[in-house]
Amino acid sequence: MKKADLVSIIAEGTGLTKVETQAVVDGFIATISYALRKGERVELRGFGNFRVVKRQARVARNPLTNTPVNVPEYLTAAFRPSKDLKEFLNK
């Protein structure tokens, strides 16, 4: 499912226009992104949690040349599904 598909489904279900729904979806994504950038954890009960995780620096290998490549430490987002979502998916 793409973002446009999500917008269409939400627009049909709420009666909002696609333009209004697009603005809501974009605002939702921006709000989560901003909170993660500040280092906050985002909890959506019944769905899951987003959090920032620090990946340690490491040495990787270039698969074409087999030469070592230094990968610096970096931050990334992690998602952990809720118990309710896991149960829903496994029914």
Description:
- It is a single chain.
- By secondary structure, the protein is an alpha+beta fold.
- It has 2 domains: about 40 residues; about 50 residues, Irregular (HU Protein, Chain A).
- Helices cover about 45% and strands about 30% of the residues.
- It has 3 helices and 5 strands, in the order ααβββββα.
- It has a 3-stranded antiparallel beta sheet. It has a two-stranded antiparallel sheet with strand order 3-4.
- α1 packs across α2.
- The longest helix is centred in the first third of the chain and has 20 residues.
- The mean pLDDT is about 95.
List the helices and strands and how they pair.
Blueprint lengths: L2 H12 L3 H20 L4 E3 L3 E8 L2 E4 L6 E4 L2 E8 L1 H7 L2
Antiparallel strand pairs: 1-2, 2-5, 3-4
Give a summary of the structure in a few sentences.
The protein is an alpha+beta fold and 91 residues long. The protein has helices spanning 3-14, 18-37, 83-89, and strands spanning 42-44, 48-55, 58-61, 68-71, 74-81.
Structural features:
91 residues; alpha+beta; HU Protein, Chain A; three-stranded antiparallel β-sheet; two-stranded antiparallel ribbon; elongated
